[in-house]
């Protein structure tokens, strides 16, 4: 059965280190949302920290699940680089493309084919020019380091991603103020996922103090490959 959920959040990003932290609130279909609040006494929310200084490590805390965590543990840890190995991807090297950096987004927009100017909109009370284009997966692949292109091509092909729409809003100062994308893919043979993502960028130049949580409060849930290349999920603290 089709399921839909939404999340909204706010946070800060440090483009120099590829790190970010965010607080998000999730909205599930009515009965699910009610069940969560009745069971845990609060809505589903999350604190997220992405540490990109050495590799790519995601830390997640779900306050409504604190009572279910092992004693002393409040954060979950997932090593994204380690997870990418299951698909032959070196995600740490793919950071070289910096496609999430607003400055790099604009450079990509200038080089893309078929970009059209939609008009002007207000983004956080500032006038921004709205551009739209269709991005080809192969274009993204060609921006990756040479030795990562074929693994990425296989991965995107497995998901069924060939193209996806991208909208950008650029301020009068030439800085990207908003990004919107729509991704549709098939994680398994019988599943179809459609993700609509919209981000706004503001307060450029603020100090970003992003640190991982204390190690003693972290439970590592990263799926790891064994010597034969098979996945396993060993929990460690």
Please give the largest β-sheet.
Answer: 6 strands, mixed
Give the oligomeric state of the chains in this entry, treating copies of one chain as homo and distinct chains as hetero. single chain
Order of helices and strands: EEHEEEHHHEEHHEEEEEE
Helix share of residues? 10-25%
Major sheet strand order: 1-2-3-4-5-11
Radius of gyration: 19 Å
Counted by DSSP, the helix tally is: 6
Summarize model confidence as the mean pLDDT.
Answer: 84
What structural class do helix, strand and pairing data support?
Answer: alpha+beta
Unreliably modeled segments: none
Strand content: 35-45%
User: So what's the overall shape?
Assistant: globular
Number of strands: 13
Quote the distance from N terminus to C terminus: 36 Å
Keywords:
single chain; 237 residues; alpha+beta; 6-stranded mixed sheet; 5-stranded antiparallel sheet; 13 strands; globular
Structural features, described:
This protein has helices at 30-40, 80-84, 91-94, 102-111, 137-143, 149-159, and strands at residues 6-14, 19-27, 45-51, 57-61, 75-79, 116-123, 126-136, 163-171, 176-185, 193-200, 218-220, 223-225, 231-233. The chain is of the alpha+beta class. The protein starts with 5 loop residues before the first strand and ends with a strand. It is built from six helices and 13 strands. Helix content is 20%, strand content 38%. The strands form three sheets. The protein has a six-stranded mixed beta sheet.
Task: Give the topology, please.
Elements: E1 6-14, E2 19-27, H1 30-40, E3 45-51, E4 57-61, E5 75-79, H2 80-84, H3 91-94, H4 102-111, E6 116-123, E7 126-136, H5 137-143, H6 149-159, E8 163-171, E9 176-185, E10 193-200, E11 218-220, E12 223-225, E13 231-233
Parallel strand pairs: 5-11
Antiparallel strand pairs: 1-2, 2-3, 3-4, 4-5, 6-7, 7-8, 8-9, 9-10, 12-13
Helix pairs in contact: 5-6
């Amino acid at each position: 059965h089709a399921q839909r959920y939404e999340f909204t959040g706010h946070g800060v990003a440090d483009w120099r280190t590829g790190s970010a932290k965010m607080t998000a609130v999730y909205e599930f279909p009515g009965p699910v949302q009610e069940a969560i609040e009745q069971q845990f006494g609060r809505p589903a929310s999350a604190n997220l920290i992405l540490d990109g200084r050495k590799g790519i490590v995601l830390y997640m805390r779900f306050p409504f699940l604190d009572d279910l965590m092992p004693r002393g543990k409040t954060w979950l840890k997932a090593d994204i680089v380690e997870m990418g190995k299951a698909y032959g991807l070196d995600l740490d090297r793919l950071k070289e493309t910096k496609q999430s950096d607003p400055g790099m987004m604009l450079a990509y927009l200038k080089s893309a084919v078929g970009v059209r100017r939609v008009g002007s909109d207000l983004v956080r009370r500032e006038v921004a020019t709205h551009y739209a284009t269709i991005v080809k997966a192969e274009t993204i692949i060609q921006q990756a380091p040479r030795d990562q292109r074929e693994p990425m091509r296989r991965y995107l092909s497995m998901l069924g991603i060939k193209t996806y729409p991208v909208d950008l809003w650029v301020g009068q100062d030439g800085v990207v103020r908003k990004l919107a994308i729509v991704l549709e893919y098939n994680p398994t043979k019988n599943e179809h996922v459609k993700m609509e993502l919209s981000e706004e960028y503001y307060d450029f130049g603020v100090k970003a103090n992003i640190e991982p949580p204390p190690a003693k409060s972290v439970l590592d849930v990263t799926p790891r490959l064994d010597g034969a290349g098979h996945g396993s999920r060993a929990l460690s603290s």
